[in-house]
Amino acid sequence: MTLDFDNGDYSSLVGQILTADAITAKNTFDAKEVVKPASFSSDLDELVLPAKSIVVAELK
């Protein structure tokens, strides 16, 4: 996927990422934090997102 930010004055992306080691990972009552949000940031020169992840981000 290619994202084009040429029409804006943006230099970075910050937000939260939700991912885990395995695509079948899940939280249970015994393992409550297998899948949990973490901080995420990147410059826009080369934005690489991990497979099996969800990102909520803001352009800065």
UniProtKB/TrEMBL annotation:
Q: What InterPro entries does this protein map onto? A: Glyco_hydro_b
* Domain of life according to the entry: Bacteria
Protein name as it appears in the record: Uncharacterized protein
Q: What is the phylogenetic placement of the source species in the record? A: Bacteria, Pseudomonadati, Pseudomonadota, Gammaproteobacteria, Alteromonadales
